[in-house]
Each structure stands twice: as C-alpha cells, then as structure tokens.
Amino acid sequence: MKVIELVKQFEKFAPKKIAVDGDPIGLQIGSLNQDVHKIMTTLDVRPEVVDEAINNHVDFIFSHHPLMFRPAKNLDLSNPQNSMYAKIIEHHITVYSAHTNLDNAVGGMNDWLADSLQLKDTKGLVYQTKMNNHEYFMGRIGILSNTMTVYEFAEFCKKQFNISGLRLISNTPDKLVNKVAILGGDGGKFFNIAKNKGADVYVTGDVYYHVGHDMLASDFSVVDPGHHIESICKPYLAVMFRKWAKQLNWNVEVIESDINTDPFTFI
Hints:
Elements: H1 3-13, E1 26-29, E2 38-42, H2 47-55, E3 60-63, H3 80-90, E4 94-97, H4 100-104, H5 109-116, E5 119-131, E6 134-149, H6 150-160, E7 167-169, E8 176-186, H7 191-196, E9 201-205, H8 209-217, E10 221-224, H9 233-248, E11 253-256
Parallel strand pairs: 2-3, 2-11, 3-4, 8-9, 9-10
Antiparallel strand pairs: 1-4, 5-6, 6-8, 7-10
C-alpha cells in the first residue's frame, strides 16, 4: 500500500480542517506516494524512537505530536534534532503527524482519555469548529462512574494512567467528585470552561505555576497527570489501523513504539 491510502482513510476520521489553526499536522518527512510495509505508532518522534523504527524495519511512523513544531534553521548534523531528521531520510522513513485534529476527532484522543477514567454521558468541553453540520470539541466532560473525593480521584488517575506521580491543585481534597472534565496535553488555560460547565475536577497536563494559583483562587480542583498520558494513542491507533488493514486488504504490519518518551521521572 501507499502512504496516501492510509492518510486518506485517517483524514476521514480526523479531518485536517478540525485541527487548530497553525498546527503543523500532516506529512512531516517523506512522500505520500511511498510504499508502506510496516507502520509504527508513537506519541513523540525522538531519536530513540527513530532508532527503534530502524531496528524494526519500519518505513512509516505515525505520531500524535508533530515531528517539526519549530522549523530547523540549519541542517548542522551536530544538532541531535537535525541528525534525527537526516537518519529518517537516510532510511527512507515517512513520518506523518495528527495532533489537534486527533484531539478533536469524535472517538479520538480525548474520548480515549475519558474512557480511561470510565466517564459516562460524555459531551464536548471546548468548542472548536463546525463542519458538515457536526460540532467538534477539544476535551470531554462526563459523569464519574463512582463518586469519590478529589484526593481519591487523583489516586484513581494515577492507577488508570499507570503513572507514579501527579500534581494535585486543590483547596478541597475531601470534596466529593461526580462530574469530571478532561483535556489531554496542555489545557490549563481552559480551566474556567471546565468549571463553568459544572465539573467538580479538571484533568489536564502542563499546568503553569501562576495558572495553578488562579485555579486555587477560583476554588477549583485540578489534577495534572502530565502530558505523557496521551501515549494512550499508541495502542488505540494501532488497533484502528489493523482494523482498516483487514477491511481494505492492506498488506501492512502495524506495531506500537515501546519507548517511553516522558522526559520527567518522579523520584
């Protein structure tokens, strides 16, 4: 199969038009007309992930986070990032990234995260756009299956996301939680939307210090389990691609990256 066959199928599920303006999604390196034999799904494209792809004879990397958030100013190969680009090209690997379009897609990233927390009756959180008479939202808000305190919920998040630590921002850790909002990635700036929609607690990553103060001043509880919880995309994307391969007779193998790209270690 060709790269473009998978891309066309994926963009029916998560169209580029539902991405945030300016998000550098889509083809990152390579050619849409390249033949694909082995796909690897990953959250991030880092040098160790590229080495993993090469060792596994992967010719197509599908990532959530774009390979090129910032354009290269030169191609000095002493720079690890530039060296990684060169290695990708040298080994004829095509890289494609789906970022906020996967976040906003129905049945995409934020639905996967909401499912991990066993939320029921979920609805969209932050309105993004309307296309073909359908409204798209980033984040989800829903009802927690079992009522628990804010502190117990934070412990529940640690278990469900398989992490050793997180940051809890709360004046009222003993308050009962019934309604939960979640937005994968850096979603601190949207906390007032979560609060105004009736969430008892908001789950998002990369909360800034001063924003944390604002959350406390608003008497709103927030759980920051980190950005890396979005690695949940790896198995979900792999399952989706295998399903399409079977339906569309693609002769392609799909694997998930085994590399943990979280830059933080809790000690």
